[in-house]
Design goal:
18% of the residues lie in helices and 33% in strands. Helix 3 links the parallel strand 11 and strand 12. The longest helix is centred in the C-terminal third of the chain and has 15 residues. The two termini are 16 Å apart. 19% of the residues are buried.
Protein backbone atom coordinates (compact mmCIF):
# COMPACT_ATOMS: atom_id res chain seq x y z
CA UNK A 1 0.00 0.00 0.00
CA UNK A 2 1.05 3.61 -0.47
CA UNK A 3 -0.03 6.89 1.09
CA UNK A 4 0.62 10.36 -0.26
CA UNK A 5 -0.10 12.25 2.98
CA UNK A 6 1.31 11.23 6.39
CA UNK A 7 -2.07 11.96 8.02
CA UNK A 8 -3.54 9.01 6.08
CA UNK A 9 -1.64 6.73 8.44
CA UNK A 10 -4.00 7.72 11.27
CA UNK A 11 -6.92 6.11 9.46
CA UNK A 12 -4.98 3.10 8.19
CA UNK A 13 -3.24 2.20 11.46
CA UNK A 14 -6.14 0.18 12.98
CA UNK A 15 -6.31 -1.99 9.84
CA UNK A 16 -2.59 -2.81 9.64
CA UNK A 17 -1.11 -6.15 10.76
CA UNK A 18 0.93 -6.48 13.94
CA UNK A 19 4.22 -6.08 12.05
CA UNK A 20 4.84 -3.57 9.26
CA UNK A 21 7.31 -1.06 7.84
CA UNK A 22 6.77 2.44 6.50
CA UNK A 23 9.32 4.15 4.25
CA UNK A 24 9.50 7.03 1.75
CA UNK A 25 9.62 6.24 -1.95
CA UNK A 26 13.01 7.95 -2.20
CA UNK A 27 15.34 8.66 0.73
CA UNK A 28 18.46 7.38 2.52
CA UNK A 29 20.02 7.17 5.99
CA UNK A 30 16.76 5.49 7.14
CA UNK A 31 15.07 8.90 7.15
CA UNK A 32 11.30 8.43 7.27
CA UNK A 33 11.58 4.69 7.94
CA UNK A 34 9.54 3.20 10.79
CA UNK A 35 9.58 -0.41 11.96
CA UNK A 36 6.67 -1.91 13.86
CA UNK A 37 7.20 -5.43 15.22
CA UNK A 38 4.38 -7.28 16.98
CA UNK A 39 2.55 -4.06 17.74
CA UNK A 40 5.50 -2.12 19.15
CA UNK A 41 7.67 0.58 17.59
CA UNK A 42 11.16 -0.88 17.07
CA UNK A 43 12.60 1.95 14.99
CA UNK A 44 16.28 2.68 15.85
CA UNK A 45 16.53 5.85 17.93
CA UNK A 46 19.40 7.20 15.80
CA UNK A 47 19.56 7.62 12.06
CA UNK A 48 22.39 8.28 9.67
CA UNK A 49 25.28 6.46 8.09
CA UNK A 50 27.18 4.35 10.58
CA UNK A 51 25.06 5.43 13.58
CA UNK A 52 22.39 2.74 13.64
CA UNK A 53 21.83 1.14 17.03
CA UNK A 54 19.90 -1.91 18.15
CA UNK A 55 16.17 -1.14 18.00
CA UNK A 56 14.40 -0.81 21.31
CA UNK A 57 10.74 -1.59 21.79
CA UNK A 58 8.49 1.26 22.82
CA UNK A 59 4.73 1.84 22.63
CA UNK A 60 3.48 2.55 19.14
CA UNK A 61 2.55 6.23 18.89
CA UNK A 62 1.07 6.77 15.42
CA UNK A 63 0.30 10.52 15.90
CA UNK A 64 3.97 11.05 16.82
CA UNK A 65 5.11 9.20 13.69
CA UNK A 66 2.78 11.31 11.56
CA UNK A 67 4.15 14.50 13.12
CA UNK A 68 7.73 13.39 12.43
CA UNK A 69 6.89 12.55 8.82
CA UNK A 70 5.31 15.96 8.32
CA UNK A 71 8.45 17.60 9.76
CA UNK A 72 10.65 15.54 7.44
CA UNK A 73 8.53 16.54 4.46
CA UNK A 74 8.82 20.23 5.41
CA UNK A 75 12.64 20.00 5.45
CA UNK A 76 12.76 17.93 2.27
CA UNK A 77 15.93 16.04 3.18
CA UNK A 78 19.09 16.50 5.21
CA UNK A 79 22.61 17.87 5.08
CA UNK A 80 25.36 15.26 4.86
CA UNK A 81 29.03 14.86 4.05
CA UNK A 82 29.31 13.54 0.50
CA UNK A 83 32.73 13.02 -1.10
CA UNK A 84 34.34 15.40 1.36
CA UNK A 85 31.86 18.27 1.16
CA UNK A 86 28.66 19.16 2.96
CA UNK A 87 25.61 18.96 0.71
CA UNK A 88 21.86 19.24 1.03
CA UNK A 89 20.35 15.92 0.00
CA UNK A 90 16.81 16.17 -1.35
CA UNK A 91 14.50 13.20 -0.70
CA UNK A 92 11.48 12.12 -2.73
CA UNK A 93 8.74 12.34 -0.11
CA UNK A 94 5.82 12.43 -2.52
CA UNK A 95 4.56 9.12 -1.13
CA UNK A 96 5.27 6.57 1.60
CA UNK A 97 5.12 2.80 1.21
CA UNK A 98 3.54 0.48 3.77
CA UNK A 99 4.98 -3.02 3.55
CA UNK A 100 5.04 -6.32 5.40
CA UNK A 101 7.89 -6.62 7.89
CA UNK A 102 10.06 -9.47 6.61
CA UNK A 103 11.16 -11.98 9.25
CA UNK A 104 14.77 -12.90 8.51
CA UNK A 105 15.56 -16.62 8.39
CA UNK A 106 18.64 -15.94 10.53
CA UNK A 107 16.49 -14.63 13.38
CA UNK A 108 18.44 -11.35 13.31
CA UNK A 109 16.29 -8.25 13.77
CA UNK A 110 16.05 -5.98 11.84
CA UNK A 111 16.43 -8.36 8.88
CA UNK A 112 19.83 -8.64 7.21
CA UNK A 113 20.10 -6.47 4.12
CA UNK A 114 21.91 -7.99 1.13
CA UNK A 115 22.79 -5.32 -1.46
CA UNK A 116 23.85 -6.74 -4.82
CA UNK A 117 25.81 -4.53 -7.22
CA UNK A 118 25.62 -5.79 -10.80
CA UNK A 119 26.79 -4.59 -14.21
CA UNK A 120 25.28 -6.59 -17.03
CA UNK A 121 25.24 -10.17 -15.79
CA UNK A 122 28.43 -9.66 -13.74
CA UNK A 123 28.00 -9.54 -9.97
CA UNK A 124 30.64 -7.11 -8.66
CA UNK A 125 30.03 -7.64 -4.95
CA UNK A 126 27.34 -7.95 -2.30
CA UNK A 127 27.24 -5.66 0.72
CA UNK A 128 25.86 -7.43 3.81
CA UNK A 129 24.43 -4.97 6.32
CA UNK A 130 23.35 -6.16 9.75
CA UNK A 131 23.43 -5.23 13.41
CA UNK A 132 25.74 -7.37 15.53
CA UNK A 133 25.07 -8.43 19.13
CA UNK A 134 26.45 -5.12 20.39
CA UNK A 135 24.01 -3.21 18.21
CA UNK A 136 26.73 -1.89 15.88
CA UNK A 137 26.16 -1.73 12.15
CA UNK A 138 28.40 -4.28 10.46
CA UNK A 139 29.17 -4.15 6.76
CA UNK A 140 30.82 -7.03 4.92
CA UNK A 141 31.50 -7.30 1.19
CA UNK A 142 31.41 -10.75 -0.40
CA UNK A 143 31.60 -12.25 -3.87
CA UNK A 144 29.23 -14.73 -5.50
CA UNK A 145 30.78 -17.55 -3.42
CA UNK A 146 30.06 -15.69 -0.15
CA UNK A 147 33.77 -15.08 0.41
CA UNK A 148 34.89 -11.71 1.74
CA UNK A 149 36.21 -9.47 -1.00
CA UNK A 150 38.05 -6.14 -0.51
CA UNK A 151 35.59 -3.25 -0.18
CA UNK A 152 35.27 -1.08 -3.26
CA UNK A 153 34.29 2.07 -1.37
CA UNK A 154 36.96 4.59 -0.42
CA UNK A 155 38.75 4.21 2.93
CA UNK A 156 37.07 7.25 4.50
CA UNK A 157 33.63 5.81 3.73
CA UNK A 158 34.38 2.32 4.99
CA UNK A 159 35.73 3.63 8.30
CA UNK A 160 32.23 4.84 9.20
CA UNK A 161 31.20 1.19 9.58
CA UNK A 162 32.35 -1.80 11.56
CA UNK A 163 33.90 -3.88 8.77
CA UNK A 164 33.05 -7.57 9.09
CA UNK A 165 35.70 -10.26 8.45
CA UNK A 166 34.72 -13.68 7.07
CA UNK A 167 34.47 -15.40 10.45
CA UNK A 168 32.03 -12.79 11.75
CA UNK A 169 29.67 -12.75 8.78
CA UNK A 170 26.12 -14.00 9.32
CA UNK A 171 25.60 -17.57 8.05
CA UNK A 172 25.06 -17.80 4.30
CA UNK A 173 21.30 -17.78 3.72
CA UNK A 174 19.66 -20.89 2.31
CA UNK A 175 18.49 -18.92 -0.73
CA UNK A 176 21.92 -17.42 -1.51
CA UNK A 177 22.08 -19.01 -4.96
CA UNK A 178 18.64 -17.59 -5.75
CA UNK A 179 19.79 -14.12 -4.65
CA UNK A 180 22.84 -14.25 -6.94
CA UNK A 181 20.84 -15.63 -9.87
CA UNK A 182 18.09 -13.02 -9.48
CA UNK A 183 20.60 -10.16 -9.23
CA UNK A 184 22.43 -11.30 -12.35
CA UNK A 185 19.15 -11.65 -14.22
CA UNK A 186 18.13 -8.09 -13.30
CA UNK A 187 21.55 -6.79 -14.38
CA UNK A 188 21.29 -8.54 -17.72
CA UNK A 189 17.92 -6.89 -18.32
CA UNK A 190 18.60 -3.40 -16.96
CA UNK A 191 22.35 -2.88 -17.37
CA UNK A 192 23.42 -1.45 -14.02
CA UNK A 193 21.57 -2.57 -10.90
CA UNK A 194 21.73 -2.35 -7.13
CA UNK A 195 19.18 -4.88 -5.87
CA UNK A 196 18.35 -5.38 -2.19
CA UNK A 197 17.28 -8.75 -0.84
CA UNK A 198 15.98 -9.95 2.53
CA UNK A 199 15.95 -13.75 3.01
CA UNK A 200 12.57 -14.70 4.42
CA UNK A 201 12.31 -18.04 6.22
CA UNK A 202 13.12 -20.74 3.62
CA UNK A 203 11.50 -18.90 0.74
CA UNK A 204 13.37 -17.08 -1.99
CA UNK A 205 14.43 -13.58 -1.06
CA UNK A 206 12.25 -10.49 -1.21
CA UNK A 207 13.60 -7.65 -3.33
Amino acid sequence: AAITEPDELLKLAPTLPQSWVLKPVGAAYSDGVYIVHKGTDCTPSERGEGSLVRPRSRPLDVPSIVAQLNTLRSTGGRRAEVLGSSRKLEWNLSAFLLEELVECESGIFPPIDYRCYVVGSKLLWVGINHLNRQGVLGLGYVDAEYAVTPPIHNAQHIQTFSFVPQEELPPKPSCWDAIVTSARSLGAQLGVVRARFHPHCTDCAHI
